[in-house]
Design goal:
single chain; mainly beta; Porin; 14-stranded antiparallel β-barrel; 8 helices; disordered N terminus
Length: about 375
């Protein structure tokens, strides 16, 4: 083999993102880009406001208030891995609210060598998803539905793949009580072309999520709770020795003890919680906790803040700027940056000044006022 390519390493690199992460292709679809989502734990679908960044995860939250909004998000992941997202939203009253955007991830440059270590240059690896979204309220703005259509292109050295995926979602919102509930079925689709000729199609990261959020009545605080990977109960790490050794005499309870899991840890691996403190319209403080991330990536002797995340958001005139940071491991954290603005505000004309009254009209009005009233009997 002339060239030694690290394609296999690239394809399996996202096993660190989740225990089931290495079993699918196009895993970048599930990496959160938005600073607000990243700060709230990485999985938030049940928030109904005018933030367009939630539409990528839950298209049913698209609404007319987002019309004209432009979003730019950037994620400094790890090493030379960077990700970004760009979108624009437009509302059409009869048909609903539509979004168009592109999500990309760049894995950086790699050195190309042969078995003897002779260098032949460098190559890059990247993946893209062109995302079209639609959302529409169908019951008095309290119940809405939506869908995303994703066209995917993946490139690793001389290996390419094209795929297609779709999301469907529904959201219920009670604005008076500040309550929102949502459900999303993500990444239904398939590879259209595989990386290798005549190769079997690889699965894409299908997932079912559900979530709720509640804005407290007397405190400027919104709490969110999301359930992830509902299509798969077993998210725990399985000891490879126990999996491959069929002669083991351990009972099922002993295996669970060795893997460090039980019914409670299994349940909490599906849970992501977040809290958003909003003292004013111009400043937000956010925190999140991802149980699954901490269970899989924290070191036993030094877990640190693995699984925790935080962020801030603030408004500067027509710009809404957010930053988020998520702790994946002691080795480092991700850094999310998002800028959102409404382009229609830059072209919105102010109220036209009232035209000045003509002098003649003013004079006639004054004379009319000064004219004495007729007396009775005249």
């Amino acid at each position: 083999m002339k060239h030694s390519v690290l394609v296999t390493l690239l394809l399996s690199s996202f096993a660190v993102f989740s225990q089931i992460g290495g079993s699918n292709t196009y895993e970048f679809l599930n990496v959160p880009v938005s600073a607000r989502v990243g700060a709230l734990g990485g999985n938030v679908i049940a928030v109904s406001d005018n933030d367009p960044t939630f539409a990528l995860a839950n298209p049913s939250v698209l609404n007319s208030q987002m019309s004209g909004m432009l979003t730019l998000s950037y994620l400094n992941y790890f090493s030379d891995v960077n990700q970004g997202y760009f979108s624009y939203i437009r509302d059409y009253k009869k048909f609903g609210t539509f979004s168009a955007g592109i999500k990309y991830i760049s894995y950086g440059e790699f050195l190309e060598t042969d078995e003897g270590g002779n260098e032949f240059g460098t190559f890059s690896a990247s993946e893209y998803a062109l995302v079209f979204g639609w959302g529409k309220s169908i019951v008095d703005s309290t119940f809405s539905v939506g869908a995303n259509l994703k066209t995917i292109y993946s490139s690793f050295y001389n290996y390419y793949s094209i795929g297609i995926a779709a999301d469907i979602s529904a959201t219920y919102t009670n604005f008076d009580k500040g309550f929102t509930a949502a459900m999303v079925v993500k990444n239904m689709g398939t590879q259209l072309t595989t990386y290798y000729e005549n190769a079997d199609r690889e699965p894409i990261p299908f997932e079912i999520q559900a979530g709720i959020s509640k804005r407290l009545a007397h405190v400027p605080l919104r709490i969110s709770l999301d359930l992830i990977q509902l299509q798969n109960w077993n998210l725990s790490y399985n000891d490879s020795i126990l999996e491959t050794n069929s002669n083991t005499t351990l009972t099922e309870e002993q295996k669970q003890a060795r893997n460090g899991t039980n019914i409670f840890s299994e349940s909490f691996r599906h849970v992501v919680i977040g809290a958003e403190f909003v003292p004013s319209k111009s400043f937000m403080l956010r925190f999140g906790y991802n149980f699954k991330r901490r269970s899989e990536l924290a070191l036993d002797n030094k877990p640190g803040l693995t699984g925790f995340s935080w962020g801030v958001g603030f408004r500067v005139k027509k710009l809404h700027i957010s930053y988020g940071s998520a702790r994946y491991h002691l080795a480092g954290s991700s850094n999310h940056f998002t800028i959102t603005t409404n382009l229609s505000e830059y072209y919105r004309k102010g109220a036209a000044p009232k035209p000045p009254k003509h002098k003649k009209e003013k004079k006639e009005k004054v004379e009319k006022v000064k004219k004495p009233k007729k007396q009775k009997g005249e």
